Amino acid sequence: MFAKQFRLRTMNEWDANTFEDCLGKKVQWGIVSGRPCSNKEETAKALAALCKGKVINMKAIGEELRKKMGTEDEPFEGDVPTDRIEEFILEIVSKDRQCNEKYCYIFEDWAHKNATDFVNAIDGEFGLPNFCIQTKCDKKTIEDRYKKANETEEIGEDAAAELEEQAKKDDANCADFVNIFKDCNISAKYHEVSTETVEGANNALRSAFSAKVILVNHEKRLDVDTVCSNLSIKYNMLYMSVYQLIR
Q1: Domain 16-210 adopts which CATH fold?
Q2: Residue pLDDT, tens place only, 134-151
């Protein structure tokens, strides 16, 4: 079961999650957040392709569980318990590990009341998130995508109110994530990505998540491999010696 209390950590604290991360045991996970029509889903898929990720949509999982919890004669009524959805996610991760498959789990949606409750739950089982991507685009782009998706040329009063409510909810989630990442000293892992164009969004993802390479040229008599390897691990980079490259 997922823990329900958020644990703030400082740079000087002993952190078992950091230790397990160094051993390769920590579950890698992150968040792609954004309002409808911001291309959040497409961004999550693009990121998954970039970092061997597996996209998790908790609301979609809830709908699948709803079908299994009911029958054809008596469909399940009411909301699927959030802890049941969480258990299902744990089963996914467990099966992947049994198959020696290591993924970065990318949450594009959640079933909790707000962003803080969501991070509280996942942090309790997996540790702190490795990143948060906040998808951003201007009002006109959102409206144009909404009209295309709904096959309409105008946005009526009800649709305008719906879009306004979605914008307020997204702003609240964004503020929650910014505060959480700041409190946990991981603000550098929070990214805002413009999704007005697919190409621009993909370039921003590659810039933030593609492996950074340190290519070192040195005299053979100098033993620099250990130092460079440690630096690359510390700063999440890839170290290659020129002599390794030549071989």
Answers
A1: Rossmann fold (3.40.50)
A2: 999 999 999 999 999 999
